[in-house]
Amino acid sequence: MENAQGGLVLYKGQSGEVSDSSSRPGYSLVMPVLAAAGPQQGSMQDTLEEKQTSAIADQGFVQGDMRDQSGMPCAVANCNSIDPPNPNAGNSGNTGGNTGGGTTPDPTNPTGVAAEILAANQAGTIGSWSGSGNVAGAGLLGSFVWLNATGNLSVDFRNYQASFGLSLSGLAGVISRSTESNAIGTLRPDGSFVFNNGSMTGTGCLPTCTLVINSGSLSGTGLSRAGVNFSVTDLLNLIAVNNQALNLDRQFPQ
């Protein structure tokens, strides 16, 4: 999808929308329903051939939809060398977590993030990550305040759709915010994310706050870790959070 404000790449199973001529295309949770009339004339053999052709095309998509950073299909390129960027780079508000950076191989995942993502796509996996930690916030009149942040990330590898929710608390319960509308985005072949903004409600939000995902990525063997760098703003800039990182661990089914 593309207009004068920008472009958006949609993978199979994803949908997008453009609200007006001054807005760039964004991801949508609403899936379009397209009804098509069947052939006016056709035999049972024609129908079987159509199904076989469709199945082959679908399988070809699964094999070819993952690409490296230059756009080359992973079936041809060496996607194993791709590693997601470090979401904690340049941020002293939180430490630890993702050790990857750019195209430098992640020592905790020698097989490569892209290969892990492709395997999860073929298996139809839905993954979840969660974690909590302290992040720096600016309170009233710019005063510094530590906030406890808890994040939950979900990724549907079947269509690379992602969802991130966040809650913030501090000052013995005086500050309390939680996501009203999760940030919705998509997973890239290199393990990084692109998100739309979400919304939060709570103390200082008049009436809502905006949750902005600056960057995020998956890393580690089995995609065991995730990192998200986020900001939270509100109308009066009360208790704002700017460019803070949160590290998440994958939650495996018991």
- Compute the average pLDDT: 75
Which stretches are low in confidence, meaning pLDDT under 50 for 5 or more residues running? 59-64, 80-105
Structural class comes to mainly beta
Helical residues, percent: 10-25%
As a whole number of angstroms, the C-alpha radius of gyration is 21 Å
CATH topology of the domain at 80-250: Porin
Cα shape: globular
- Distance between the ends: 40 Å
By DSSP, the count of extended strands is 14
Q: Which CATH class of the domain at 80-250?
A: Mainly Beta
Main β-sheet: number of strands, strand sense, barrel status? 8 strands, antiparallel, barrel
Write the layout of secondary structure elements.
Elements: E1 2-3, E2 6-7, E3 15-17, E4 26-28, H1 44-64, H2 113-123, E5 126-138, E6 144-156, E7 161-170, E8 175-181, E9 183-187, E10 193-195, E11 198-202, E12 209-219, E13 225-233, E14 241-250
Antiparallel strand pairs: 1-2, 3-4, 5-6, 5-14, 6-7, 7-8, 7-9, 8-11, 9-10, 11-12, 12-13, 13-14
